[in-house]
Amino acid sequence: MINYRADLIHALINIFCIFYALVILRGTTRDIGSDKEVKYYKTVVWCFIGFAASNIYWLFNMRYPGEFLMLLVNAVNISFMLGIAASWVIYAETKLAGRDKEIPVLTKILVLIPFAVLTVLTWLSIKTRMMFYVENNDLVQGKFYIAIIITIAAMFLVVAVHAAIEASRTSSKSRKRECTTLVLFAVMPLLAGVLDSFLPNLPLMTPSVFFSLLLIFAQQQESNISNDALTGMYNRRYAQDYIDDAVRDADGKPFCFILLDAKKFGKINDIYGHLTGDRVLRIMGKALDDFAKENDCLSARWGGDEFVVVIDKKKCDNPEEIIKHINRLVWEGVRVSGVHVETTFDGGYCYCESSKTNTDDVLKSAEEMLEKVKSAA
Predict the structure, then answer these.
(1) pTM score, two decimals?
(2) Residues 265-305: tens digit of each pLDDT
(3) Could you tell me which residues come within 8 angstroms of residue 161 by beta carbon, excluding any fewer than 6 positions away?
(4) d(Cα 308, Cα 298) in Å, to the nearest integer?
(5) Which domains does the chain have, with CATH numbers?
(6) Average pLDDT in the 324-353 region?
(7) What is the structure's pLDDT at 199?
(8) Torsion (CA) 247, 282, 171, 312 in degrees, nearest 10
(9) Burial class (CB in 10 A: 0-12, 13-18, 19+), 228
(10) In this structure, are strands 138-141 and 255-262 parallel, antiparallel, or unpaired?
């Protein structure tokens, strides 16, 4: 007997997910990640929309049966399902690699070849019955359909394990949250797949993938509040709150505020272009992040070509030496990247040893010293 109410509920769930997936697409801009990250994430969302749209067909299947149409829609559905898994792996590995690094070619090959082979076999199954076929107006899984399930599960599991390992290695809280979100994205569809084998009539897969996408989107938006989109560092808003807290605790934990400015950065943009300029800023940000991890302190992008470091006074006996050390890290980053530019930081600094100090005075003192250093140069 045809259960039209259940079919209608299934269709409405898919329509709901499609509508809000389109909302997510509209809100996915370069402000929440690099161009590559945004492109790959949008690919995942578009594949999901195609998957959900093809699911709606089953509402009408019983009313308008047809063997060829059933096979055709199922091939479309599986193709989008494979697309979600493949594009998700590329997106996640891009996030895990970092903004200035390409994911290994071997990784792309290991993802795209199974995707291409299984997609071709899926479409050939309309004739060969290898993956699926129709019997008594019911869709039946072929003997090789398990290859699709294993491949998709393997893709999600590999990413989940990689993200979990990365989360255990990093000391950055924002990086840990990012990696944890990638793990959760993989786990939710896997759990839905397991439950679906026991409760086949419940529409679990579409909402599980949708909420995984929503989780990633929410994490990106949250990161955008406190992180700089270009470099991935903490932004000025976060740094300002951090400095305010540090001033309040300065009686027992004095600190040094260091303001850094990239030398002749405007000329780099003028001569080499803004893309190279952005790459240089990311290299500088990476150098500062490495320094912050080494010394358990804060580094952040202050705005434009300015960066800041807030470090415990006990670790900052000689701020000039710290600035020189950071510049050596920048030089090493430039050398490894192959960017043919010459730039380092000018720096000004100010110690804060009392909670009665005004935050603005700390910032102003560092700015005045920085201007003197730049003028002298």
Answers:
(1) 0.67
(2) 888 877 778 888 888 899 999 999 989 988 889 999 998 89
(3) none
(4) 8
(5) 4-226 (1.20.1070.10), 236-376 (3.30.70.270)
(6) 88
(7) 65
(8) -30
(9) buried
(10) unpaired
